[in-house]
Amino acid sequence: MSCRRQGCLEQYESPESEHNGFGAQQARTGMRVTEGGVELDVPEQPEDGVGEGVFFNPVQELNRDLTVAALRVARERDDAESYLDATAASGVRGVRAAADGFDATLCDVDPDAVALCRENLARNDVDGEVYHRDASALMSERRFDVVDLDPFGTPTPFADAAVRSARHLLCVTATDTAPLCGAHFESGVRHYGAVPRNTEYHAEMGVRVLLSSLVRAGARHDRGLRPVLTHATKHYVRTYLLVEGGASVATRCWTRSGICITVRSVSTASTMPASWRTRPRSVRTAASTSSRRDRCGSARPPTARSSRRSRGNWTGRWGPRRKHANCLPPSTPNWRRRPTTTSIDSPSAGGRAR
Length: 354
What we know:
Blueprint: E1 2-4, E2 7-13, H1 24-28, E3 29-35, E4 38-43, H2 61-78, E5 82-85, H3 92-99, E6 103-108, H4 111-123, E7 128-132, H5 135-141, E8 144-149, H6 156-165, E9 166-174, H7 177-181, H8 185-192, H9 202-220, E10 223-233, E11 236-245, H10 247-254, E12 258-263, E13 268-273, H11 304-310, E14 314-316, E15 319-322
Helix pairs in contact: 2-3, 5-6, 6-9, 9-10
């Protein structure tokens, strides 16, 4: 037996290979896991994490601990009672939610996973519904106070259905960090509708790209998503978003997205809003080492006035006197208000990208 932190894993030999839901080879060897006060049977996982059996990731115990904490806050804040584990696999999330008093529903398309979920619910003497069907179809038919997406890879195929199904809280895990962080550029563009770049702050890049994709999915259905907790840990990104209905709320959340401009030669990044409705009074511009003058931050073409001002010293609301500035100030300074955030496709965290 080996124990780590609060969880314990024990290898065992199962004699119930013909009716316990595993394939014959997988049924003979498994793991008995104790986590968060519940006990579960899961298949033994291959060392490289790739196999034909039901997937269970012991590394994400912290993820599941935070999920239970978020569920308790949602229950206190919004009287949340129903919980959907949309891609249940071994059912560990749903079993822990049911043990904490939630009306848990577990769903998976894999028949072995469905049988394992039922077995683990019965092992812990907790009630829960288990569905053998596509998660998007179930989420399109029913609504839940909390919807939890933890698929293998990208969550975008389930995003639209999850946004429609969640009443109060949407929890999403993305394990495809290579596309999110720009290492697999084409896949990131296809899945998330963004242009991720593999920079020195690639973890933050992945967080902001994921948040932007989810907020845009909510806006398509007139639902505003407001992230309240997001963390990038090892090979996955996890986020928790409050769900609010209404077109005006969805617009307000979407207009907090933005664009990041990175100058690789000096490792500097700056941000600007994506929406014309949130134009700032000034736009921070990335430093440039080029000898020619580049408009790095202006959202409109230069005018004759701004060009004349750039050829010599000038003083104004844009800062101290400068000479031959590489980055010209925007020519329309009377923009209405500063955005609540300036980040790459991020609806929440403001400030300079690092």
